[in-house]
Amino acid sequence: MRWSDPIRAALAAFALVALAACGDLPQPFRGNPGGQAGLLAAPPAYRLAIPRPAGAMLTDRQADGFAEALSTALLANEVPASATDPLPLDWRLTVEARLDGTAVVPRYTLTDPDGQRQGSAEGARVSSREWSAPSADVLTRVARDAAPRVADLLLRAEAARKGMDPAALAVAGPPRIYVPMVRGAPGDGNMALTARLREALNQQGLVVQETTQGARFAVTGQVDVVNQPATRTQRIEILWTVSRQDGEDLGRVLQLNEVPQGVLERFWGDVAFAAANEAAGGVRTVISNAGGFPTQPGAAPRPAGPQAGQGLAMPQNPGALPAPQAQAAE
């Protein structure tokens, strides 16, 4: 895919300019990441096998059709899945179903190559009448409902593995971070930046949450756009503020960019991908410096964290979380 010069300039110009108390910053994916960057930046090092779901209350033929529908839906969600019996290094998705009144509730369980259960999720209820003789459309609908739930299980399992070794994981688990919707961006920027940052933080070994319950950290994003008529450009400022559950402001990641006026008024696309991936590395560094990742035996002492600042409290009502105010990074 060929990009216009304004889009190319926008991708190339995003830069991290400040991060409180963290020293040099990792800056992956700087510049033009390419149209397939979201698929190729960190390809999954696994395959998810979906054997015939014998416990799904389906005939063999129907069960095979459901496994194929699940595989297709998961591939559409960028999960490398195959309707087949697992090989030794494959992850496995076990599908079962149970009756609940006049409905059937499917359940999906994820197992790693060592046979360890990594989590499970229930799907949307299906009428028992539909499930007793499901058409291809019904199986496809149920599979599409299941795909994002299974993808989330995989992301959480990957985050747990990347966050720390199994011994430490058994004690504390990877840090959980609340990521609410970004605010202030034109076009689809709020949704695009939020989605890409959540994905990037999962890849950094954090468990991302859309609610505050159980989260130790939070990161909020505020976008400010300043029109510059003299040069027909806009200055885009993205301020990511990392806070802890007790309200302490741990640090800020500030990104600045000048783009031709109107270039981000509709779609952010790969610009959001590049900005979020750069920001995620900085966010992880802030959390690591604050002791968010348990120290491994024999590891060097972590650097001292930043001083207390005006933090963001994490209320029970996520809608009450105050928006960060743009200010000079420390």
UniProtKB/TrEMBL annotation:
Record's compositionally biased regions (Low complexity): 296-330
Chain spans, region Disordered: 108-130, 293-330
Transferase is among the record's keywords: no
Signal peptide region: 1-20
Swiss-Prot/TrEMBL keywords: Signal
Protein name: Lipoprotein
